[in-house]
Amino acid sequence: MGDFKIIIFIMAILISLTAIANKRKLPYPILLVIAGLIIGFVPQLPNLSLDPDVVFVIILPPLLYDAASKTSWHEFRTSIRPISALAITLVFFTTVAVAVTAHYLIPGFSWPLAFVLGAVVSPPDAVAASGIIKGLGLNKKVITILEGESLVNDASALIAYRYAVTAVTTGTFVFWQAGLQFLLVAGAGIAIGVATGYLFVLVHKKIENNPVVETSLTLLSPFISYLAAENFHMSGVLAVVSTGLVISWRSPEVFSYQTRMRTKLVWDTLIFLLHGFVFMLIGLQLPAIIKDMGNYPFTEILGYGLLVSLVTILVRIIWVLSGAYWLNIFQRRKNRADTDLKKETDETWKNVLVVAWTGTRGVISLAAALALPLFLLDGTPFPKRHSIIFLTFVVIFVTLVVQGLSLPLLIRWLKIKPQDNKNAEERELQLFLTTSTLHFIEEDLAINLDSKSQELLKKKYEGLIMDLTKEIRRYKKAKRNDEIIKPPPQDNLLNAQLQISRFKRELLLKLHKEGDFSDAAIRQVERELDIDELKLNLQVPKQE
């Protein structure tokens, strides 16, 4: 009962603080972490400990699934090289760099223990990354790279973590076996995730006109995917990400407009609550972590934590800048005659600096540290367990608060103008749909309309074409004005509009498969179609 009361209390706090953060334009993850720290030191409140199993089995799958379902497969595929370099190579490089630092500079850290610490703090967190960069108007490719990295890197880090812990508990480690095992665990996790995704796609196709059941299935799918992979000791993280990408890719075909609208509302609320709890739980853990440290010199261990934090930040900056430098040399040689190269290069380096500075750690690192076993196989306590947990917390706090608060300042200092081409692209997509629809009305509409109704339809779309053309020419990014509600049409006109809506949806599906427009623009126009179709269906006479 006590835990239930504190959960309700935390929920009230996070809702209030999020409302304040949105009004004041503050990064809400940082605000919630600090609030958790303050609440954690209130003596009258019971401690709410973070159970690693709850994080990995209950919290992590829906967060990863939601992030993957909002990721464009086209954009993810085109950015696969930088995503792989950050999510796989950089994770292992950071693990090694932190391990070397811990082994030589922190007393009592053997090589296996040092690699455990390196694996724990190496992956930037998907939840923290999305919370920090939200609303900053970053370049679309930068967002794709950062979000794609945070989706994949957890798997790399957790696999490295698994073998580092095994080395500590058993005292044995074979590098080539670990490398082969990594390929097997990652590849099988992806395969299980893809198979699970297509299985759920088939199930959704069999279900018609039941938004409640379909929405419930979307809530179930990440857990099924994660547990299926983990049951075979494969990567549950990559399985969930793969499932989310597959279902997101096929969603225009399998989900009705009612399901899409209901699913969006349910998932937006769920992810909001999970995000808030995650960040507040991070702050709430500090009192218990300090208590477990016992008589260990606090200033000394804090200094080591700041040292490890500095290494994780510098390694990322060096890795990203050096990789971008060599790529830039190659492009400069290739495009030597390009007159716009200098301007493009300047913008590229600004975006590279943003990627290099955005390496916030989060709940995955803390859960991995807390999941360390209490004892070795021989019954002795796991060495340096409390030190690893505290060092991990310091790294999370430094990267989340320092880098998170300074990122908007860096963007302002670099004079990076917010890029929001989504509205312009939506207008272009709407213009394409509208002109194609007008041609459909004139040439292929199967319903015979009287001349007045047909002229009314044509004038509607001709007016839309004119308005959209003006907006595109003037590069307007303001939101569209609310449409004027017209009187209910006659039956034939209503049927014609429903048929037009089906045509537009099929055309939008074709464009989604071809990848000429971004998923963000397609989803926004799709949502407008959903709303329009809902209005039309409300006018259809109900069957007695």
Descriptive account of the structure:
The protein is an all-alpha fold and 544 residues long. The protein folds into 2 domains: 49-413, Na+/H+ antiporter like fold, CATH 1.20.1530.20; 422-538. The protein has helices at 2-24, 28-40, 52-69, 73-78, 80-105, 111-121, 126-133, 140-170, 175-206, 211-231, 236-254, 257-284, 286-292, 298-334, 341-357, 363-370, 385-413, 422-443, 451-474, 491-514, 519-538. The protein is elongated, with a radius of gyration of 26 Å. 38% of the residues are buried. Residues 476-490 have low confidence and may be disordered.
Write down the overall mean pLDDT. Answer: 79
Which class of the largest domain in CATH terms? Mainly Alpha
Query: Outline, from the CA principal axes?
Result: elongated
Share of helical residues: over 70%
User: From the 3D coordinates, which CATH architecture of the largest domain would you assign?
Assistant: Up-down Bundle
Main sheet characteristics: none
- As a whole number of angstroms, the C-alpha radius of gyration is 26 Å
Low-pLDDT stretches: 476-490
How many domains is the backbone divided into?
A: 2
Number of helices: 21
Distance between the termini: 50 Å
Succession of helices and strands: HHHHHHHHHHHHHHHHHHHHH
The CATH topology of the largest domain: Na+/H+ antiporter like fold
Which structural class matches the secondary elements?
A: mainly alpha
What amount of the residues lies in strands?
Answer: under 5%
Q: How many strands in all? A: 0
